[in-house]
Amino acid sequence: MTASRAREPHFDPPYDSILSGILSFGTLGETAETLKSLENLRQRFLAASDKKGVGYCRQLGLLGRERATMISRNQRVDPRKRLVKEEAALWFRIWLETPELFADWLVLRKMSEDFRKLQEREVS
After folding, report:
1. Alpha-carbon gap, residue 119 to 124, rounded angstroms
2. CA dihedral 93, 104, 30, 28 (to 10 degrees)
3. Helix, coil or strand: residue 76
4. 63-100 pLDDT tens trace
5. 113-123 vs 79-97: helix crossing angle, rounded to 10
6. Rounded distance, CA 66 to CA 61, Å?
7. Which candidate, 69, 65, 41, places its Cα nearest to that of 55?
8. Is residue 56 a contact partner of residue 21, using CB atoms and an 8 Å limit?
């Protein structure tokens, strides 16, 4: 199990099986999939007026941001990986602040010069 998947919080049934294994941010692709899944679940819970489910989605987003930020600040981690984690933390922050706009924001972010440079570093 990678550090980005380690020790997810405990959720009450049936949320435990729904949310298990969603939090993953080893790469920016995994981060995007995590946030897409969280947003789909958040929308589903909102439609059902399920405040507990919405709260659990937010809790996972907060945990992702916290862990990505922690790794991005760890001087023992490879500088390229730290930049990727810093970007992942930004994605989590934007999703937490404006989840309904995140998908559109991500499309624009991926077109930016900063992102293209970061992606080159992630691959190399």
Report:
1. 9
2. -70
3. coil
4. 999 999 999 999 999 999 999 999 999 999 999 999 99
5. 130
6. 9
7. 41
8. no
Contact 28, 68 (CB under 8 A): no
CA distance 114 to 108: 11
Tracing tokens 């692709």 back to the chain, one arrives at 29
- Predicted model pTM: 0.89
Q: Please state, in angstroms and rounded to a whole number, the distance separating the CA atoms of residues 87 and 85.
A: 5
Render 12-49 in DSSP notation, one character per residue: -TTHHHHHTT----SSHHHHHHHHHHHHHHHHHHHHTT
Q: How many Cα atoms occupy the beta-carbon half-sphere of 84 within 13 Å?
A: 20
21: number of Cβ within 10 Å: 10
Place of tokens 């602040």: 97
How far apart CA 20 and CA 65 sit, in angstroms, is: 17
- The residues near 107 (Cβ < 8 Å, ≥ 6 apart) are none
